[in-house]
Amino acid sequence: LSRRMAVGCLNMGLNVRIIPDLPNGIKLEKYIFDILPFFNNVGIYRVIREDEFSPLKNTDAYETNCPTTARKALSEYHTRLLLQHASFKYPEIKVLVELSPALTYAGEGLESFDNMVIDNSTAICL
Fold first, then answer.
1. Rounded to a whole number, what is the distance in angstroms from the first to the last CA of the chain?
2. Nearest to 53 by CA among 75, 32, 33, 70
3. Where in the sequence is the domain holding 79, given as residue range(s)?
4. pLDDT tens-digit readout, 86-121
5. 3-class secondary structure for 51-106?
6. In a domain, 31, yes or no
7. What is the pTM assigned to this prediction?
8. Is there a domain that residue 5 lies in?
9. How many domains, in total, are found in the chain?
């Protein structure tokens, strides 16, 4: 799937955004459904959407599918993983939680947090 489209750019010398009137680029795009005919066997995983997917395709100006919503989704997922072992001292205060992939991928290896009460204002660096 491809289509011609007008792609804006920035003239760094003049610090001016240029928006062309005519198409000057090609958008190349494939969806999962486009590639299925190329395979003899296809497997599908059914997963919890919030744990596995957060689209990132816009800038923060759009307020959806943007870096801020992706960061929030990852933080909420990591919070759920951590809460299987620990608790927060002030659960009503929402904080960003980021677990290093060197520590855990899907919650394994978090036993060192068993029964720990985490102060929301403290950064734990591992």
1. 44
2. 70
3. 54-125
4. 888 888 888 888 899 998 989 999 998 898 888 877
5. HHCCCCCCCHHHCCCCHHHHHHHHHHHHHHHHHCCCEECCCCCCCCCCCCCCCCCC
6. no
7. 0.68
8. no
9. 1
